[in-house]
Amino acid sequence: MQLLPAEEAILAGESGETRQQMMEILVALGKVFSAERLVPIKSAQVSGASYKTIGEAGLEWLSLLDARVSVPTVLNPVGMDRVLWREMGISPGFAKKQEAVISAYARLGVKLECTCTPYYIYQTRFGDHLAWSESSAVAYANSVIGARTNREGGPSALAAAIIGKTPEYGLHRVAERKPQVVVTVEGAADWDETALYGAVGYHAGKSIGDRIPLLRGLRPKRDQLKALGAAMAASGAVALFHVEGITPEARIFGYDLSGLEAITVEPGEIMSLMQEGPVDAVALGCPHCSSEELRKIAGLLEGSKVTVPLYVFAARKVIEATPDAVAAIERSGGRVYADTCMVVSPALEKYGVIMVNSGKAFAYVPNMCGASVRIGTTEACIEAAAGRPSV
Fold first, then answer.
1. What's the predicted TM-score (pTM) here?
2. Domains in the chain and their CATH numbers?
């Protein structure tokens, strides 16, 4: 790698031990992937924020760092709602450790937004270089916005945040953002249910792994694009996808698809994922809900009372911006939580069967919560929460 004099000075330890350590991480990563230089980033998003996932070793490492971030940086969801953790059933012991993790990040200058949807809060533009680590946020930033980020690990994202730069390799290079496989979804042109896009993503991700797909036959809106990418990132390792005629780079570049593998997804393959049966809890907001999704949930609950625990997750600023919908959900007996999610919180580990409307959650809940999982439409999830038959 070709380092600038100021970068060489950081690597030599002239800006302190922590910044030297962070530069060492970036240089090592750059060498592995044959990056020629570091590029400045606009923002960072750091995973490894829940004590459930990083444990004592991660907390100890964070506590040893002594530097501040150089660019706007937010956290991924932590293991509890920072205000309502008692209501969630979080133990005081876990809460104490989680607050220690949060305090360690705050000391580094990280903003305590604690969300997997930072694009709902901060403006990110086409072509911006980022260092984001949450898989669904990476897929959204690359695909829907047209920004550029690899799927960073927690330490490399934090290193980039502190230095303000990241190695230029992978999806930071325009030439490496071209489609590598074509996925045609039959019978989906009129779909309006977000859960179906999540199910498509879950199904497709298993076939395409980490390849960059161009999808045909879909007309998704913003939240549906979020669900689609999140699920492909979870069941495969997709960090960038294109939707013909929809996503910005597909519109701008008009890719030549000749010679690429073609995969067809039939409607029956998607509908077969939707299963009937009793559930112990319903969880929505993986990735975190938008204001529009909160309003939809509130509308579906109108006139109903929840008889099965209903958890809804969103960024705190989104919750604060949508007070009427949140109040309506909670009047019906549902609970809306910030800062955390169904995957990284221990709160849902007590349930045997959890119903979701998210392909990402469908992929992660069994391993992360130890529960069986069912996926259904948002309407079906609300019917299940209200004790009515679900599909």
1. 0.95
2. 5-174 (3.30.499), 178-271 (no CATH), 281-385 (3.30.499.10)
